[in-house]
Design a protein that fits this description.
A: alpha+beta, Immunoglobulin-like, 2 domains, 9-stranded mixed beta sheet, disordered N terminus, B: alpha+beta, 4-stranded antiparallel beta sheet, 13 strands, about 40% strand
Amino acid sequence: MSDWHSQPVRLHWCDPHLEVFIMADGGVSTYIMLITALLVSSSVSAVLIQEWSSTSRVIQQQQRGMQFSEELGIDFAGDPMNVHIDRTTTPDEITFYVLNTGEHRMDEDQMEILIDGQVIPNTGVSTSFVGTPAPLAWDSNVLMEIVLSNTSFNSLTDNTDLSVFVTVNSEEVAGITSSASFNNEVRLNG
Amino acid sequence: MGASAGIGGLIIGIAMLMVFTMAISSFDAQVATGLDAIESASVPDPSFTIDDVNLEQHVIHEVSITAANRGTGYVDGILRANVGSDECGGFSATFSTTGGEIDVGNVVITNHGFCPDSSTPTWTIFDTSLVVQTPTSVANFSSPVFRQYIYANITNHGEDLLKTDDIWVFYNGEEPETLTESQDSTRSEISGVGTNWYSGQTIPLFWDGESSLNTEYERLAFTAGPTTLVRSTS
């Protein structure tokens, strides 16, 4: 092809019909360039579409995660000035209530409780759901009674103010889990 | 040549349309997710007030008389009670008679009142004009059943309807139960009219506590979602 391109004038002089042939040859090269351009642009488009899809998927997942977190909530329920401490047990026991104020089920087995910044070991945490009949899971608006047992409570007197921090993980929903927590100042009352 | 360029342009156009479609669908999905998030975030917290809480101990819940103690020479009248100079909070009951005897099981309490303690009060039997009756033989009412009554009014000040099933009541921070469960099935306004607590609605509440425990509750707490209100009894 490059040889034909090198002698266009001579061929045009010899036979006017060759001009048609040369024009067709130019069309072929243009066509090849066009195809090449199309292939390149298609590849770029495919890459762009793929990247865009990935980006939008990631953004959507992040948004879903944020939305899911917003839909979770737990809160102290009851009278914060009247948190019961039972001194008839050994060690003393503190009882308070936590309400699932979110929209999704929480996992009470994945819960951490801190009293005045001190982690209460899971062996000293007893939970039960309140209601008749008692709910089987910690769903929305289900009230949970938490009884804490720890030797550090033995020295606490009535009217002692305590900081209660509770954090709990949610059950998995569509592959997403998150956590909710609250911090409340309460007063003991035997 | 012209046809090739046309076809090429068509293909490029279609490719661009595909890209545009993908972009639009992704954008739509993100907007939908965003709107869901906005909707869920826009639900306001419950807002209500405890207008008052009144607790009365040693309320005369029930009065009865046995067949052997109905007395004679009575007319229909009114029963009052007092412990010393205390008139048991204005306790009053009406009764009917048959042949001069007070009807068994027909003593209707019109004001439950409240006595200073759970000792049996002194009964005074009046006629309907509040003149003390002078019977042939005196009737003796049995010891009354005392209970603890709590009256309260709560108002939904939020813009959303609340469910009384979703509201928890605590007595001195303990014994939680839903507002629906807490109410007396026969005397409560909630009972029988559903569990909806509409915006602006004031619900009168009534608790009829067993006297056996006789715990004088000092504070009532109401929890609805993240909103908790506590009020001392008076």
